[in-house]
């Protein structure tokens, strides 16, 4: 081996046209993979289709709510539905998820009410659900921080002595391609590796970190990084819900049985803007988006269902109607979300009494009350 | 009273041991905390007795230490993280400030993070750069953290246990040049008889000037008070012990009596914790003050090479000089 032979090249074909683990082609044809057999009933496939359609509809509604000024921001998952539903449906009861702020599809799989996701983006709270109740931690905005929390949580599961038992839970950390450059993510890989922690690192490589393409983050395919840390890494078609499900299931099971961490790179594409404040027309070509449209994660499942006579028009219409209803309820719920009371900002800063919180809360209450006195005749 | 004569370092070690005995969820983690017992031997013998699963030699990554401690706390553990030296806490600052401090509010109270971050702090040991710093103000400025600083063996023993028992994250400063100071410690006193974690202590009563200090500066202030007494000046020395929350009543009670106040810390004076003290005392004791609150601390420079640290650190003479100046107004 020479130095030059191992030097990666930016824009190498491996980055652009990679080999992917795939079970459903973009045309909707089922293909087999020797390492990832998957036996789904027609009902299960229909269930995945329903998930995909509903989370896309939730996402569309949230984007619309933002355009109308009802949300301050939204991070769209458009294009990443299969990566999220496939991996999310691989999770079981005892598993714990540490998401970024874009995992609306995974939240759906963990039964977090969609309305609760809006609190952060409407500005009424910083996270409106109980993580323990759903096995789904709060959205984390600082890029990559949650990968360390996931690793620590997994080290806790390990110390509970549950691995290999039916109550063993794996921990799954979600993050993006940009996050792989963060120190925290690399430290999480090191900790997970040396402690053999039961954690699955699920990287949705959506090709763009706001305006920076993948070449700004890496000169080798991301999944190959795992080898350097000493655990398996693999790359899956992130727009193939079957493959994401099968690969994640296996990685989670390995974690639960004490076989340590896995890095999954779900190769997908962010079809929308980074967030509603972003403008992708400034930095990427329409042609690229058009090419990825042909790999749509939902259309291929629909084609598979229809071609195999696994679903009829009535079912497809039913799912559309249900998605519409979910969106309607989301909108109504959003508009009805009350603004928090001013004095509530002093609550929950500490778990136990804190004199400064009490003092400032009382001072602010008195200040607010002074306005009320002025209008009293 | 079962008094044992312990160094401050051994008192911390004994307190950690008690906490680990009393609660199987307490973990110790950090660089070299296992077989070595930490570079200052604060965790000496703990791995031998509690095992590698509870006394964890971590990879050399401070953000990783605090970040995984957060995850462990979310799983029900009570991690005590050792940051090897004050100047090495900054790689962990992101996890401490953006994650550890805010989880309670972000979860609307559903989550709490009982994580202790132990930081040996301050100078005076002739160390190379980044080994003598006093970063407390970065953390007192961060809502959601409790920040405490022990100054003597007896407090070290109780305060570390109280910090571990706290449901909130605690930044725990240890005065590294006092690790070898010895004192009697009542290791069997019932926790109910301990002073509350966030109470200040009057360590020397006096009449003419209130001197506020914490951590390594307390001893220096006590020495200054003894010297001042020879000149007929009576200094009241208060060991703050807790910087967030602050025992403001203990402070104002004293300053309202003396009318003069000097604040002493090793950190640079500019935007240091003394600024907060001076402002609060001025707001509360304005009509009782005979002179402005004066601050004695490090220069507003990076910590200097150790051959200069005796000039940088507040010493007896600089404290007495400030005391004199409070009478010059």
Question: Can you give a write-up of this model?
Answer:
- The complex is a heterodimer of chains A (377) and B (329).
- With 377 residues, chain A is an alpha/beta fold.
- Chain A has helices at 13-16, 42-67, 81-88, 104-109, 114-122, 131-134, 145-159, 183-194, 225-229, 241-256, 286-293, 297-307, 313-336, 355-375, and strands spanning 96-98, 171-176, 199-205, 208-209, 212-213, 233-237, 262-267.
- Chain A has two domains: 13-336, Rossmann fold, CATH 3.40.50.970; 342-375.
- In chain A, the strands form two sheets. Chain A has a five-stranded parallel β-sheet with strand order 1-2-3-7-6, with helices on both faces. Chain A has a two-stranded antiparallel sheet with strand order 4-5.
- The model of chain A has no long low-confidence stretch (mean pLDDT 95).
- Chain B has 329 residues and is an alpha/beta fold.
- Chain B folds into two domains: 3-193, Thiamin diphosphate (ThDP)-binding fold, Pyr/PP domains (Rossmann fold, 3-Layer(aba) Sandwich), CATH 3.40.50; 201-326, Rossmann fold (3-Layer(aba) Sandwich), CATH 3.40.50.920.
- Chain B contains twelve helices and 14 strands.
- Chain B has helices at residues 8-22, 46-50, 62-74, 93-100, 103-106, 136-140, 153-165, 217-230, 248-258, 273-285, 309-312, 316-326; strands at residues 3-7, 26-30, 55-57, 78-82, 116-121, 146-149, 170-175, 182-186, 201-204, 209-213, 235-239, 242-244, 261-268, 294-298.
- Chain B has a seven-stranded mixed β-sheet, with helices on both faces.
- In chain B, β6, α7 (153-165) and β7 form a beta-alpha-beta unit.
- Classes of the chains: A alpha/beta (377), B alpha/beta (329).
- Chain B: Its EC number is 1.2.4.4.
- Chain B: Keywords: Oxidoreductase.
- Chain B: It comes from Actinomadura violacea.
- Chain B: Residues 6-181 form the Transketolase-like pyrimidine-binding domain.
């Amino acid at each position: 081996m020479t130095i030059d032979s191992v030097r990666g090249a930016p824009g190498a074909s491996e980055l652009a046209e990679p080999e992917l683990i795939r079970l459903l082609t973009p045309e909707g044809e089922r293909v087999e993979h020797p390492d990832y057999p998957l036996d789904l009933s027609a009902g299960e496939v229909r269930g995945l289709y329903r998930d995909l359609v509903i989370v896309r509809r939730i996402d569309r509604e949230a984007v619309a709510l933002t355009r109308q000024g009802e949300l301050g921001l939204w991070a769209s998952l458009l294009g990443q539905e299969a990566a999220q539903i496939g991996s999310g449906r691989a999770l079981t009861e005892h598993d714990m998820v540490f998401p970024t702020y874009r995992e609306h599809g995974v939240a759906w799989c963990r039964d977090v009410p969609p309305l609760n996701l809006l609190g952060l983006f409407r500005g009424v709270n910083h996270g409106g659900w109980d993580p323990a109740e759903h096995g789904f931690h709060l959205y984390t905005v600082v890029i990559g921080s949650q990968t360390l929390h996931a690793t620590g949580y997994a080290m806790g599961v390990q110390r509970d002595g549950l691995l290999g038992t039916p109550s063993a839970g794996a921990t799954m950390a979600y993050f993006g391609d940009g996050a792989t450059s963060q120190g925290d993510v690399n430290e999480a890989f090191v900790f997970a590796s040396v402690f053999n922690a039961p954690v699955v690192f699920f990287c949705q490589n959506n090709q763009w970190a706001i305006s920076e393409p993948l070449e700004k983050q890496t000169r080798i395919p991301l999944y190959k990084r795992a080898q350097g840390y000493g655990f398996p890494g693999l790359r899956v078609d992130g727009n193939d819900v079957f493959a994401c499900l099968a690969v994640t299931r296996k990685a989670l099971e390995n974690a639960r049985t004490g076989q340590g961490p896995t890095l999954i790179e779900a190769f997908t594409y962010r079809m929308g803007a980074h967030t509603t404040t972003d403008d992708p027309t400034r930095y990427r070509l329409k042609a690229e988006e058009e090419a990825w449209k042909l790999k749509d994660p939902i259309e291929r499942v629909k084609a598979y269902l229809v071609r195999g006579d696994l679903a009829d028009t009535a079912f497809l219409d039913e799912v559309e109607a249900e998605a519409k209803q979910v969106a309607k309820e989301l909108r109504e719920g959003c508009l009805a979300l009350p603004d928090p009371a001013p004095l509530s900002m002093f609550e929950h800063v500490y778990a136990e009494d804190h004199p400064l919180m009490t003092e400032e809360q009382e001072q602010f209450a008195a200040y607010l009350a002074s306005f009320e006195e002025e209008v009293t005749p | 009273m079962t008094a044992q004569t312990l160094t401050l370092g051994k008192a911390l070690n004994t307190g950690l041991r008690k906490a680990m005995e009393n609660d199987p969820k307490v973990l110790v983690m950090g660089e070299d905390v296992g077989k070595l017992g930490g570079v200052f031997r604060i965790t000496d013998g703990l791995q031998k007795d509690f095992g590698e699963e509870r006394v964890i030699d971590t990879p050399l990554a401070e953000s990783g230490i605090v970040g995984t401690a957060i995850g462990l706390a979310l799983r029900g553990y009570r991690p005590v993280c050792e940051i090897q030296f004050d100047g090495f806490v900054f790689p962990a600052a992101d996890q401490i400030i953006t994650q550890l401090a805010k989880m309670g509010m972000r979860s609307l109270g559903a989550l709490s993070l009982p994580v202790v971050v132990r930081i040996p702090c301050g100078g005076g040991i002739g160390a190379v750069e980044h080994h003598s710093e006093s970063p407390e103000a970065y953390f007192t400025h961060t809502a959601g953290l409790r920040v405490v600083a022990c100054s003597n063996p007896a407090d070290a023993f109780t305060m570390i246990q109280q910090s571990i028992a706290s449901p909130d994250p605690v930044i725990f400063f240890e005065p590294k040049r006092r690790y070898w100071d010895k004192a009697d410690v009542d290791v069997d006193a019932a926790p109910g008889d301990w002073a509350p974690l966030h109470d200040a202590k009057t360590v020397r009563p006096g009449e003419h000037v209130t001197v506020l200090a914490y951590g390594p500066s307390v001893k220096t202030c006590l020495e200054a008070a003894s010297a001042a007494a020879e000149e007929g000046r009576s200094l009241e020395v208060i060991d703050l012990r807790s910087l967030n929350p602050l025992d403001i009543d203990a402070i104002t009670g004293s300053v309202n009596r003396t009318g003069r106040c000097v604040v002493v810390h090793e950190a640079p004076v500019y935007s240091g914790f003394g600024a907060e003290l001076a402002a609060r005392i001025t707001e509360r004791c304005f009509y009782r003050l005979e002179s402005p609150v004066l601050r004695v601390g490090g220069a507003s420079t990076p910590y200097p090479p150790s051959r200069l640290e005796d000039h940088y650190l507040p010493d007896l003479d600089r404290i007495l000089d400030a005391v004199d100046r409070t009478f010059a107004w």
